[in-house]
Design a protein that fits this description.
single chain; 238 residues; alpha+beta; 4 helices; 14 strands; 25% helix
Length: 238
């Protein structure tokens, strides 16, 4: 199966069949409702009050919704402060954060790649410029193609004059597991952004960077991955 995303923002995109164009999933993450702006009178009252104490800002919470082509709910991911998934629902199943959908005990942080297993016995492998899905035998069964275009039934890197789309190719993934794989994909793309501190556009242009810059990138990724793994362990203990 080949999924084509209508936007590089995977949290707000429509996923269609890359061959037929049929809509498969709608993914949306509405912005949280903002409080009404205070009136001039309330601002004056607040400013003139000697007892007014500023309260710490509350964490921003968003929810990503995944629906089918008819709008039926399939899954939800609740986020805190953009990067932390605090609650995940897939069908009737609920997971208390990433610690229950990923197997944190077997995360591997290697010099050139990071491998994160899922509860489905698949593994996501991420590098600064790639994201692939592996089966239990480490065979590649899924791959993210960023800014590609289809030509003669093949995906070719798009040119600057004609930007392409992002595609997710999945092979040998049962239909019954497709939604859960899509959920873990969204979690991984968010983690990947957090790990490497660069956007999808920069991933594509990394080849021209000097070795020193890549070395710094790996150090940042390692520190972020260690913190993320500690978060998973805390979630499991709780």
């Amino acid at each position: 199966m080949l999924l084509r995303f209508s936007s590089g923002d995977f949290h707000n995109a429509t996923a269609t069949d890359g061959q037929t164009g049929a809509v498969l999933f709608h993914i949306s993450t509405p912005e949280p409702v903002r409080e009404r702006a205070p009136s001039v009178a309330s601002l004056y009252s607040f400013a003139s009050s000697s007892t007014a104490v500023s309260e710490p800002a509350q964490p921003v919470q968003k929810t990503t919704f995944i629906t089918d082509s008819e709008g039926a709910a399939l899954a939800e991911i609740t986020w805190r402060d953009r990067y932390y998934a605090t609650s995940i629902r897939i069908g009737e199943r609920t997971f208390n954060g990433t610690g229950e959908i990923f197997d944190s005990h077997y995360v591997k942080c290697l010099p050139d790649e990071t491998i994160i297993p899922t509860q489905l016995e698949y593994k996501w492998r991420t590098t600064p410029d790639s994201l692939t899905l592996l089966d239990d035998d480490h065979n590649v069964i899924g791959r993210l193609y960023e800014n590609y275009t289809p030509i003669n039934c093949k995906l070719i890197p798009a040119s600057k004059r004609a930007p392409g789309y992002d595609y997710l190719r999945l092979n040998k993934v049962p239909t019954s597991e497709l939604v859960e794989v899509l959920v873990t994909f969204l979690l991984m793309t968010t983690l990947r952004e957090r790990m490497y501190w660069i956007t999808t556009y920069v991933y594509g242009s990394k080849a021209g960077q000097p070795r020193s810059a890549i070395g710094k990138l790996r150090k940042q990724a390692h520190r972020s991955l260690v913190h993320w793994r500690e978060t998973l362990f805390r979630a499991k203990r709780d």
